[in-house]
Design brief:
It is globular and about 35 Å long. The protein is 38% helix and 11% strand. It is of the alpha+beta class and 160 residues long. The longest helix has 16 residues, at 2-17. The chain has helices spanning 2-17, 38-48, 62-73, 75-80, 139-153; strands at residues 52-57, 85-90, 109-113.
Length: 160
Amino acid sequence: MASRTCAKFFLSVICNKVYCASGKDNGFGNSYVWAGSLESGIQIGTHHKKPVMVIIHKSWCKACKNLKPKFASSTEIQTLSKHFVMVNLIDDEEPEGNTYSPDGSYIPRILFVSPKGQVDHDIINEDGSSQHKFFYSRPEQIAKSMKKVIQKYKLEEFNA
């Protein structure tokens, strides 16, 4: 509880310097600090040189509904999330075009955006489908990709 309050305070300090609004968890967990929109998340990430984790999901999607409680309760993802700006986009918040659907518009999709604001197509679910590279169904798969992002951008020392 104290860490969540501290994280929300930190986000509010960031928001004083960079425009953003605190986002909704949409079922992915209120222990995370969510950016209010994709635009504000990318702006915060580039300003603070942090990668952005983008979750694209739909309210009616069974796979999305199955992932939410697993994601919300994952202590590993919660720990890793401090290295990221977290964004989750539901229903009509999904961006148009191919930038955030590089291999299709299936859901849920989790993509990572570099600290320079570019979608990183190299970070994929290596334990998943070769057709749906950004589909994740288990927290371990997500944490594995998060660790790769941390290592790739060498944000700080990280011991798995």
